[in-house]
C-alpha cells in the first residue's frame, strides 16, 4: 500500500491509473477505523481495480464548540487496517495543504443541508461538501463509497454531484451495527460503560417506530412523541432531533407515507450520536 500526503503526488498516481484504464474507487474518511469503515473499503475493493482511502479530519465541518481537537485519532493502526483490507493507497493530507491560507471557496448544497443535522450543526454540510469536492478533484475517482449511517451527508453529496456534473458514481453501504444494534461510529469511543448502555436507545427507537408503522400507525406526531418518551426514559439521553419524513426531499408531513426516513440525533451526556433507517409499509 502506498502512503501519500502530498496532493500533487496523489493526483499523479491517480492519473497514472486512469491512463492504464484502471477504475479507481475513493473511500473518504476521517480515520479511527471501525468495522463500518472496513466494510466501505471491502465494498470499494469489489467495485474497482484501485482503492484510495483518504484520511483527513476536516476542520471545516466542525463547529467552534465541537470536538475537532479531541476527535479520536490512531493513524498507525488505521494504516495497518487499510493495508489488511487491500487498499492500494492511503491519502493523508495536511490541513494546511487542503485549506491554504487564502482559501475562500465553499460549496453550499442548500435545501437538503437545511434540516436534521444541518439545523443542529450550522456550516457542517458546507464543510463536508467542500472537502468531498476537493477530494474528488484531487483523486478523480470513478466511484466513491459512503456509509448510510450519515444519511443526510449522502443526500448532500449525491445532490452536489448531480448539480455540479461531477463525474463520480456515488455508492452507499448499509450501516454496520454492534450486536445490540448500536450503529458503529468513531464517536462511540467517547462513551463510558454506563453511557454505552444508554446508547442503545437510538436503535430501540428505530425498532419501536418500525413496529408502530407496521401496525398501521400513520400519524407522525404520535410516533415521534412515543420515541421521545422512550429515549428520555434512558439515563442521560437527550433528543437533539427526531425526523420522520420523505427520504428524498427530507421534508416532513403530518401523515406518514412509507417508505419513510426515520433519522435521529441523541446526546448521551456530551456525546452526540446519530442513526437512521428507511421504514417500508410492512
Ligand atoms: O463521513 C465522514 O467521515 C466525513 O464527513 C467525510 C465524508 C470523510 C468528509 O470529511
TL;DR?
The protein is built from 10 helices and 9 strands.
Structural commentary:
Helices cover 38% and strands 20% of the residues. By secondary structure, it is of the alpha/beta class. It has 2 domains: 2-173, HUPs (Rossmann fold, 3-Layer(aba) Sandwich), CATH 3.40.50.620; 186-277, Pantoate--beta-alanine Ligase, Chain: A,domain 2, CATH 3.30.1300. α7 (151-163) links the parallel β5 and β6 (169-173). The protein starts with a strand and ends with a strand. The mean pLDDT is 97. The structure holds pantoate. Pantoate (PAF) is lined by residues 28-30, 58, 61, 128, 131-132, 150, 153.
Number of domains: 2
Distance between the termini: 45 Å
Hetero compounds: pantoate
Q: Which CATH class of the largest domain? A: Alpha Beta
The number of distinct β-strands equals 9
